[in-house]
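Page 37, top half.
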Amino acid sequence: MSQSRQVATQVLYQVVVKHQHLKQALHNNIGTGISDQDQAWIQHACYVSLRHHFSLQNRWQKFTDKPLKDKWVSELLTLSLCQKFHMSTPDHAIVDEAIRAAKKVKKNWASGLINKVLRLAMKDVDYKIDSEVIEFDHPQWWIDLLKKDWPEHYLKILQANNQKPPLWIRTVHESQIMPGQQHPNIKTAWLLDDNKASQSDELMNGQFSVQDAAAQLAAKILNPQAGEYILDACAAPGGKSCHLLEQESKIQLDILEKEPSRLKRVEDNLSRLNLSANRIILGDATKPEDWFEEKEYDKILLDVPCSAAGVVRRNPDIKLLRQAEHLIHLTQLQQQIINRISPLLKVGGQLLYATCSVFRSENERQIKKFLKANPNFSEIELHDDFAEQCAYGIQIITGTEQMDGFYYCLLQRTS
């Protein structure tokens, strides 16, 4: 097991110290010689360690005389306490395996420190939570922003962000019956029991797709009709594109994505589900002059790049990688994209602006700014029982009906 500890520590080190995304770090570090069971353990341990990284670090830091210079060892200590407090591993196994993992990477000098710090931290019955960062396992700027944006819901959002995410799948037809619980409003969305899902033949054969119910709302709102010419801008990984084609195969769908590797994922998803698009475009949403063919669209789906603050439970590394100043760049990019893409819409056509964020600066404030500058557009009001009404558009609060946090606003070009 010490190899699994060693690999998991390396993954955490890549994320926390080298600022690599968790999925990429897992992909880079899990080699061919590791059994399926160990791979599953490494993945689980890394996700849980990152979900609770702030509090786990705090638990061992109080037992070191000065800040630990060796960041690899510090991630090993964090992982070890994750096993104690979130994975119910026996204490003696935690200490022994941690020392072995350190020795494997030639850090014999750390054995005494690991032994002392872990034993003290695991026996610390008087552990006191002395800050919101430790209590909620989020950066302070994030907590403050949620309090400001959602004073009535911030606690629910923070708690939901630290939960293991549920497994939602998307069926091709609303009438397709699955072993699980159907969403009352989004009929293609089924909530599966994680344990049963692995035994489901349909899931193993790829006959449907894994996609959160909140993300499935996009196709329901856009409601594609036969003969319509539709653009899905910023389309990767292609879940919403596929859903539009599943709902109505007789649309002409242009799929746009600027990253070649991400576009490949869209193509893989289309081919797996036996779906075809009108055009698959490698291009930049801020530069339509490079790829637009002068024929205006009936509908546009604009799922813009965002902070991903609504899908943190699926991507716990975001809490450590995202900084407050990133929002400035993101909101500028979002504004640029909507301003460049909206003129490609027919008069009378509809544009759906979407994000997987819960921050108002990326959502309703963007729409307010856009409508002020573009009086030839107006909002078509959306109403869903499970969503919060905003000044413009609707917000699904993370955790509501077990969904991710998503924002939607439907606009129409009026002249």
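Page 37, bottom half:
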Amino acid sequence: MSGVGSIEKALRTAPPDRLVETLDAYLSANHGAKSSTFWLADYRTTTLTPSRIEQDPALEEQLAPATRAFASQTPVIESREGHAFARLHLPVSNWGERVGVLSVGLDAERAPTELPRLRELAETFAVAISAAYRRTDRYHLDRRRSGRLTMAAEMQWDLLPARGFEQPGVKLAGQLEPAYAVGGDHFDWAVNGDWLTVTALNGMGTGLDAALLTTLAVNAMRNARRSIPAGQSSPGDLADQAVLAADAIYSQYGGTRHVATLLLSLNTATGELRMIDAGSPRMLLVRGGQVRDVALDPQLPLGMFGDTRYVEEREQLRRGDRLFIVSDGVHAAGRPNEPTYGERDLSRAIRSTRLQPPAEAISSVMRSLREFHAGAELADDALIICLDWSPRADP
């Protein structure tokens, strides 16, 4: 039994917590693999952890090439001249969500032939592992070996649809920090037809209280987006979504709590961008190597008052445009008697990422933010989203 169809069936019928072992057996039986390791990315996407219980000193030698494959999102072949053994390190990604890396050891002479087949297999495995993730605790435990999540962070990460998304012409990535203790900052996104809707949120308060508020806000906006009858509004219309979400928050908290929110809808075919600025998250446009703030009319945060109405603003993107969305934990990060990070370093850090894909660009800006804090843990939640629009032809 060989081929993608057979591995799909094997993974589909395996218990959710045994997908790694099922894949290992399949690779051995059908591709001549001597060994295999599935590496999961941690919550910061900076460290890979093997999804296995037993410790193997040989894994330390695999970590560096596996990390290169994860960072570049291209296969890395590890071999030595004159050696009969090779190891292939293959990115495991699902619609732009970087899950981890699959490392496969096999006879060196088979590596060129097996590489295209194993790349396709890694893509199939990415879909299966993403589906299994919500059905077992195993992969959650693997990801957090370097640190324990707070209750607030647990809620935020479980609420997130995925940290990345890609389709022809569009790439999106986002990151929450401090990854293991994030409270109120969050982002959400959904694709419906030609419209990609993105929201960046900053729930009032800290810790669990902020996480509960943000969870309500995210689900209120999802409910609003999914409750508008077909034909009455396009998926890109934001005003009704904002109103319904604001009313839900106000009815729960009576105006004592609110959520600073930036709402976006991008028509991925035409580049039309619809926006509502309802709080502190800021958006920066990168065009032609220059970075500028997108100045929007400030409107009330969601839930501050009852019966609040919201007005959309619009902008036309150009091919190759990049958007960065950052929370106040990024642009307003400060140190005593010094300019804020947003005033001093943010634009420079963003310009330095122009040749990087969104996921790597976010990592670079986060590193710059940590350097600004001299390596100390972030004092406030930090959210960064990067969105590229590069259609193949003019709309």
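Margin note: The longest helix spans residues 111-132.
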